[in-house]
Batch of 2 targets.
Target 1
Amino acid sequence: MATIQDVAKAAKVSVATVSRVLNNSPSVSEKKQQVVMRAIQELNYQPNLLGRNLRRTETKMILVLVPTIFNTFYAKVVKGIEDIGNENGYNVMLCNTYAEKNREQVFLKQLKNRLVDGIIFMATGLSKEALNEINQHFPIVQCCEYIKGANLSRISIDNYAAAYKAVTHLIRQGRKRIAMISSLNKLASTVEREAGYKKALENAGIAIEPDIILPGDYGFKSGLRAARQLLTKEFNIDGIFAISDMMAIGAMKTIKENGLSVPEDIAVVGFDDIRYTSMCEPQLTTISQPQYDLGCGAMTLLLKRIQNEKADIEHIVLEHELMIRGSTVI
Amino acid sequence: MATIQDVAKAAKVSVATVSRVLNNSPSVSEKKQQVVMRAIQELNYQPNLLGRNLRRTETKMILVLVPTIFNTFYAKVVKGIEDIGNENGYNVMLCNTYAEKNREQVFLKQLKNRLVDGIIFMATGLSKEALNEINQHFPIVQCCEYIKGANLSRISIDNYAAAYKAVTHLIRQGRKRIAMISSLNKLASTVEREAGYKKALENAGIAIEPDIILPGDYGFKSGLRAARQLLTKEFNIDGIFAISDMMAIGAMKTIKENGLSVPEDIAVVGFDDIRYTSMCEPQLTTISQPQYDLGCGAMTLLLKRIQNEKADIEHIVLEHELMIRGSTVI
DNA sequence: TTGTATGCGTTATCAC
DNA sequence: GTGATAACGCATACAA
């Protein structure tokens, strides 16, 4: 494997000159330029960027930590991150954490060990104290999901307002006994969505019943399960608000299997507007997040942080949209 | 940011000793060990792995190139790759190529520039000549999709046999006019699946009609579109074999929208057994690939290649399974 | 414009 | 068991 030394020798110049050619410095004669280029070609030389990175103390690589790519919600967000990253000369790589703390630590180590220049968290199990500590020394940013109170830049939608809007929509459709399929986790999004749900009921003069707020894990099966519970017992619900589309789709399946129909008997609203919302029958009413823009924004925030350690901490909130489809409107 | 030098100074030992502690070499006294550890703690020292990697000419990072994480088929494969990789001390990162050649080149550059130790291709736009050239100098492996004739290790199922089995199943269910939703690409899998489809028809004495072999792009919408074509014209089909589940699900939707029913009027078979196959109505009959094992196998092959440049080239074929569900059986 | 020499942060090879 | 010190491959301040 040829090194810069070999090229220098072959071109009969110093390594400095070769380096200059590689980084196309203006101060190198046309002639030497050519000679060096030829040598590079002939030796099939590939610069070892480990050397360069060590020297420059940067790698131009950034990591995106996502719980799991099984959740297609992240795909568009990642595209936004990639596009802005690439425009600025950064390579973006994805890492699955599977919501496991030690896996998160492994990738965090890559940051601390200077193997990557920054990390975007799509969700994290770290405490706000831990995040603050890391952010003091290394560039990190939160995207979509975030830990409340952590003192670092983030971008997301207003989950409270979104849930409020979704539930109010159900109420306007005449629904009065609206269940929620939520989660046991303490993510900011969960807390805010529950708060928005409750506020909407309260504003409409509907009593909140803890019994019809069930936990799920965002997945299809947990939607099936939750709906089954809601139907077996005598809750007599006529609406469901789920904090993920997959759970909403699972709930619809259970409802139909029980001989009831959506939206006539029970209207259903999901969250995220993943692709499958328009594939199911009926199509799912849901909250659409501006995924691509969230990604772009996150990368922009990270770049600011990388370029300027003392960059202002920003909390950006993007607009969401209620996509009204067949699952709530007869 | 503290370096190994700082630690050495603080602990009043040489950098060599610190390095030994870091790599827990046995030949270092209990006492010094402790002193060094304390210094590391106090300085909050994080080794800069760029230095280590430069020295060792390895990074313990490997890249998985996937066309797009929008396709959930890859999720389980990636899990297999990660598990075997992690067991062996490697960090696995995902890169989206979006089937764009230049994006593929960018990540390939990371390999050539020694920023990563190897690459697993889940699909590639490179020619077999290009792949052979790369494989001569750097560890690469193909997984699931592959370029025929490329002289490097790969792992996949037998796409020919799988398609043959799927179509034969339709025939056994009494179907006689079976359409195929395929692709215009020239991937080995496509070619082989088409061949298997034709062979099955031929064996059953059914004539092959090029008119009912339509192209798609693996996505839901192209499934909708293809089915629409098949239904408008007077093809009178009673079965569809699609080379992706998403297209099969799209086709089912079109069929139902046209007042026909699955499987009574038209039976449908997909390919891959992604999660959504059991979420749709009726559930989709499909070919299940051993995704996790494919991932494990790919990583194992890559490790062999990394550890021994002259490792034998292997072409591993894993078993597939026809998952018979409601979309083909009344 | 070009070359020399030094340093980036490690690990590894020697001596001792 | 420990410490100097020379690499690893590159970029760059400084001299020329």
Target 2
Amino acid sequence: MRQSKLFTKTSHSVPKDEESKNAQLLIRAGYIQKELAGVYSILPLGFRVLKKIEGIIRKEMESLDGQEILMPALQPKTNWEQTNRWETYDTLFRFESFYTKSEYALGPTHEEIVTPLLKRFIASYKDLPRAVFQIQTKFRDEKRAKAGLLRGREFIMKDLYSFHANEDDLAAYYEKVRSSYERIYAAVGIGNRTYFTFASGGTFSKYSHEFQTLTEAGEDTIFICETCKIAINEEIVKEQPECPQCNTTKLKEEKAIEVGNIFQLKTRFSECFDLQYTDEKGAKKLVVMGCYGIGLTRLLAAVVEALGDEQGLVWPRSISPFQIHIVGLQGGDEKAQEVYDKLQSQGLDVLYDDRRGESSGAKLKDADLLGIPLRLVISERTLKENAAEWKTRGQKESALVPLDKIIEKVIEMQG
RNA sequence: CGGGGCGUGGUGUAACGGCUAACAUGCCUGUUUUGGGUACAGGUGACUCCCGGUUCGAAUCCGGGCGCCCCGACCA
């Protein structure tokens, strides 16, 4: 893509109504735009990142035999009354139709839809296990939206629901999901600072598990066991905090942001909707359920919080909007164009800063702000060596690479 | 939901109750410059969030509303 055609622009100044690092950098770089408190438009560069994250998550969900569906965000009140959550779910968006006076919810989660949905198809033990997932916009009536994309009123979430014949099967599946989640966090570049965390179970069970990523902007406080590489959420740490695995009390307190959670719902919802199956002996039994969520927009923001620096965004290759940022400076435009065409024809994701009016300094600053992992500068100076300057975002050093070796080197880099 | 702060060109800010609402940035024209947000000149751009009140006079004071941020509470 040519940068001169991109409808978004970078901005020098930070919006005064945003304080969080993720919102400031993403808005300045033109990845997102705020529409309302806690509600953002995702612009082309941000959309590309989101799609990359989506791809990583989808691949893992499919490996868990998850079948992708899309359920409605608009949901009937009756289903929420059936689970007794119409009155009690405090961030539920509830509203009345202007014309019919019927009441609706905007889905913050989808147990109320997915459970009756699967009931139409599950009748026998032969129909189990099953897993479905979706990647969809969710709504929560937050009393206070905050911290950019970290806590919004509208956000994009992947939710997976699993259906099992018994608790053992659920437990085994739950472990598989845990591994998938760990691969997801590693793939988006925050694996080394994301901890499997023991947390309270909320509405459904005694405990649940979260994945928490260490960042200053985190809303949660967790206690890390360095030996086991797991953590405990503050909410379940009472007087004597200890690691549930090795029982040590040497725990390190840290701020973290919750980037995913997994719950064993068991029969909490199958009871409400009478979701039963017939077992091998002809007996009726309740289906056992699990649910597993990852907020994509929040995950994106968490990566920014964790990796962004003074100069701007820093993307891992796996989710960067582009793999390569070609910057043509004075005297290098013609060659830059050639290299761009060549890399494009190799099917590589390339952003080419072909803007003519901008000064060199402005282009280099913008490249840092946009955060694309590999920057190739082509200018009069590099062309004296018949080369391009190769620089990795986030690293100080750069090197000259001969123009005829670039494709080779890019392919080598991508492994 | 409790507390605090704030709404002024696209953006960031300034302006004692008193001249034509100022500065920077952006944008447009031209010249210039070209490896870390070049320089100069000219130009464009604001019913000062909305409604009402006080006053000879309101961006400024008062009341109400709407919106935004931060702290806390809450949080699948």
